[in-house]
Amino acid sequence: MSTYREIHGKAIKSLDTDPSAETDAGQIWYNTSSNTFKSIVSLEAWSSTSPLTQDRYGAGGLGSQTAAVITGGRISPPNAVQSISEEYNGTGFASGGSLNTARFNLGACGTEPAGLAFAGNEPSVSDKTETYNGSSWTAGNTMNTARAGVGGCGTQTAALAVGGPAGSTASESFNGSTWTSTPSINTGRTAGRSTGTSTAAIFMGGEGAAPSYTLYANTESFDGSSWSEVSDMGAAKYLMGQSGSSTAAIVFGGRISSTNQTATEKWDGTSWTTSPATLGTAFGYGGAAGSPSNTSALQAGSLGPSPATASSAFSQEYTVSANVITAAAWSSGTNFPTTSSAVAGAGPRDAAIGIGGYPAGSPPTGKSFEYNGVAWSAEATLNPNTGTLGVNSATGTQTAVINAQNGPGPAPPYQYIAAGEYDGSSWSNATNRPSDNYSQAMSGTQTAGLLFGGTSSPTGTMNITLSYDGTNWTAEEAMNQGRSELSGNGTATAALGAGGYSNPPATYYANTEEYGGESWTASNALLTAVRNGRSSGTQTDAIFMGGGTPSAPLGIVNCSTYNGTSWVTSPSMATTRSNFGAGATSPVGAAWGAAGYSAPGSPNRTNTTEHFTTETTAVNVKTLTQS
């Protein structure tokens, strides 16, 4: 009998702690602490990821799980056909170049810097072809047959289009310039899916023509010269997602009648098997991308699932790995003590402080509350001389805060020059600000802080920047774009300002600016123009949360992350909110949001708290047992 060493070339080790590297997958060891044999086992699973910037269905997908393009599609309601493209970098989505011709139910293939889109509904059936260079689409030669619901695979210069109109058996290949008719498939159908290359492909599933609209489980294989029937899928369905090659592929989701599916099936070149990995959210009629193998895939957008006629922005990733992936997500925390808007905040979620707030129909609270990630506790009341009109913004830590307050009051004409400091037990007056403004942003610490933007009556929107050294305020270089109700995060010498508002005329901003200690520099804009959102993190690693838009002035759930260059989508909050508490200097992985304006209704404010955690990975260690 062969020994383990003879088979694997290494002996079973005795270890007091488990290995933590994915490269140790398949190794068996004896854990001397638990007196058990263990191994790292590869697994396959779906996990949620950041949503599209725009919900839609019927989009085309191309590229890989870490460099994908989702293009076209339709928003329902109101059934508006789209030309937009979004690029995915493995973390989130950002806007890409728009198609020249808006369409949905189209075919797509290739890579993120060299993509191809073809056919679809405009809503009339299309024969148009466009190529993508990583930033823009260019119209190319038309197809031989106008079609929609087409299966597409291959590359930008060697592509295959299969099926299309209900009952169609047509197949065409593309050489980067022109389309050429290729042998027909055996069973005509629409909304089937293909994967592989232009000379080695499979085509599976789909729906037949009226009046029966038969669903098919058929799989056909193409060798470059003819199509042949091979093993059927486990279930007849259409509008699935797909990834892989002609010998190693997966299909996932899809629709049976009008019901989205969660199943994943794997193809080994001969037959289909059901994968243990099911989609977390049922999916159908969306965009998909993946890899030349069956080890990774991306699903983006969908029709439904609830209601089944509405388009969705949710996205999911499929991975075969020895790592267990826990997706980035928001989770519920303990409710803020008051149902208020205009709460200022500082610190990370496990050592945070929430300051002030305006309950509906009541005067400002003038109170501060500390948070340990589990519970809020009432702390010192703000100094009445500076806190009677509430708090606009704050920065620092739970035990060393500087904030910009409204006051004195309580009657007009108001002055907005006051500042306060908190030392962990009590509030004291700080030196008044040299500017009379409110609804500004702050970043930095109590002894090295930065205040920027805001508005004042009758001056209006301001682009002022002030630094604070723990005693004095000093005027610094102004922002490029004056605005109020913007977010701020980072330090006094590496700050980030984003979003904002000015009036009149009413203008929402997506502008992002970086401060380097001497001047502000414009950077790539937010994905959405928004006011009264909040941000946390550093200048090169930040998260932007919520805020109000013209169509949702009391708040949205959308979030995005910034890497020092551009913004991409991030998992959304559960509660719509704007003008809420958050920690400007909190790391992204310890970000939080509490209270704020929320959805219309009474009191149109919320007291909910949410925590953000970033994606984590850990090797899948299993204890071996004898059965």
The radius of gyration computed from the alpha-carbon positions, rounded to a whole number of angstroms, is: 28 Å
**Count of the separate structural domains:** 3
Shape: globular
- Helix percentage range: under 10%
Tell me the CATH topology of the largest domain.
Neuraminidase
- In total, the number of strands is 63
Helix segment tally: 2
Kindly report the name of the CATH homologous superfamily of the largest domain.
Answer: Kelch-type beta propeller
Text of the CATH class of the largest domain: Mainly Beta
Please report the distance between the alpha carbons of the first and last residues. 21 Å
Secondary structure layout:
Blueprint: H1 4-8, E1 13-15, E2 28-31, E3 36-40, E4 43-49, E5 60-64, E6 67-71, E7 74-75, E8 80-81, E9 85-88, E10 93-95, E11 107-111, E12 114-118, E13 129-132, E14 137-139, E15 151-155, E16 158-162, E17 171-174, E18 179-182, E19 193-196, E20 201-204, E21 219-222, E22 227-230, E23 241-244, E24 249-252, E25 255-256, E26 259-260, E27 264-267, E28 272-274, E29 287-290, E30 296-303, E31 311-321, E32 323-326, E33 329-332, E34 340-341, E35 344-346, E36 352-355, E37 358-359, E38 367-371, E39 376-381, H2 384-387, E40 391-397, E41 400-405, E42 419-422, E43 427-429, E44 441-444, E45 449-452, E46 455-456, E47 460-461, E48 465-468, E49 473-475, E50 487-490, E51 495-498, E52 501-502, E53 507-508, E54 512-515, E55 520-523, E56 534-537, E57 542-545, E58 559-562, E59 567-570, E60 592-594, E61 609-613, E62 616-619, E63 621-623
Parallel strand pairs: 1-2
Antiparallel strand pairs: 2-3, 3-63, 4-31, 5-6, 6-9, 7-8, 9-10, 11-12, 12-13, 13-14, 15-16, 16-17, 17-18, 19-20, 20-21, 21-22, 23-24, 24-27, 25-26, 27-28, 29-30, 30-31, 32-62, 33-61, 34-37, 35-36, 36-38, 38-39, 40-41, 41-42, 42-43, 44-45, 45-48, 46-47, 48-49, 50-51, 51-54, 52-53, 54-55, 56-57, ...
